[in-house]
């Protein structure tokens, strides 16, 4: 069982940076899409609605990144401890 815990430690160490990369890349794609919608707006009303949507998207993804990037860092720390045998029984 201790061998499995150490092997999973390696997986968690690799999963942490990958999860952070996915979160940030999806956030950047969503923000770029929101910017494209603002740029494509033709009237003032459409531009105002698109800018409000961009603000909401920025706020939502900002909160997601602020919450889940530390979780991804925690995966790395958890994997490090598991790899060192801190969870052995």
List the helices and strands and how they pair.
Layout: H1 2-40, H2 44-84
Can you walk me through this structure?
- The protein is mainly α and 89 residues long.
- The chain is built from 2 helices and no strands.
- It has one domain (11-84).
- Helix 1 (2-40) packs antiparallel against helix 2.
- The termini are close together.
- The mean pLDDT is 94.
Overall geometry comes to rod-shaped
Q: If you compute it from the alpha carbons, what radius of gyration comes out, rounded to the nearest whole angstrom?
A: 20 Å
How big a fraction of the residues is strand?
A: under 5%
Mean pLDDT over the residues: 94
- The overall number of domains is 1
| Low-pLDDT windows of residues | none
Tell how many strands the DSSP assignment holds: 0
Brief overview:
With 89 residues, the protein is an all-alpha fold. The chain is 90% helix and 0% strand.
Features:
89 residues; mainly alpha; 2 helices; 0% strand
